[in-house]
Write a structure and sequence with these properties.
The chain has no helices and 11 strands. It is an all-beta fold and 198 residues long. A hairpin with a 5-residue loop joins strand 2 and strand 3. It is elongated, with a radius of gyration of 30 Å. 6% of the residues are buried. InterPro entries: Gp5/Vgr_OB, GpV/Gp45, Vgr_OB-fold_dom_sf.
């Protein structure tokens, strides 16, 4: 080989710690390259990380001796086709079926597929600002206090239990349509209202 060359090959081994890979080059008598750096977008203040899979087709830039170079990135082939076919979409599909994509035309961020755990860790306040939010889940658990700034409306009934002190404290008027039942005391201005005259 003379001069710097651009080659297409398949990854034969990866080094996860060194962020390197070796590539087999069919056009060079199946020569196997030395360990080559895998090109990243950022490595200093912002740090990106990705590695091609063994068997994945990549583009490689090699020096004139074919000894040193860099893996520029993976490329699609007739066998491995892209998951999207829309110029407005940027996304990633993982081997377990999970998918993260954003469509700039419809302004839609989609997270779906084989995701079993979604973890968001933040040491500061988190603000979700939207016109309407829906949580569609058989069960929702909140481990801390819940503060509702607007009107609280519920359907399907409500149950509760408390620890020390009152299970529920309500300041203001209560309007009840239908029967009300409490297993403990219901106090109104200090008087027990959870009894009936016979």
């Amino acid at each position: 080989m003379t001069g710097v060359t651009l080659q297409t090959g398949t990854v034969s081994a990866v080094d996860a710690d060194g962020v390197k890979a070796r590539v087999r080059l069919p056009e060079c008598d199946n020569m196997r390259t030395n360990w080559l750096d895998v090109l990243q977008r950022n490595t200093q203040n912002n740090k990106d990380y990705w590695l091609p899979d063994v068997g994945e087709q990549v583009k490689v830039l090699l020096d004139e001796n074919g000894e040193d170079g860099v893996i520029l990135g993976a490329v699609y082939s007739d066998i491995d086709r892209p998951s999207f076919s829309d110029k407005n979409v940027r996304g990633t599909t993982f081997s377990d079926g999970a998918e993260i994509s954003y469509h700039r035309g419809t302004h839609t961020l989609t997270i779906k597929g084989g995701i079993e755990h979604l973890v968001i860790e933040c040491s500061a306040d988190v603000l979700v600002k939207t016109q309407k939010a829906t949580i569609d889940a058989p069960e929702t658990i909140m481990t801390g206090d819940l503060l509702v700034m607007g009107k609280l409306t519920y359907e399907g009934g409500m149950t509760g239990s408390g620890g020390e002190g009152a299970t529920a404290t309500i300041q203001g008027n209560i309007e009840i349509e239908g029967n009300a039942h409490a297993t403990g005391s219901m106090l109104s201005d200090g008087a027990n209202s959870n009894h009936h005259s016979h």
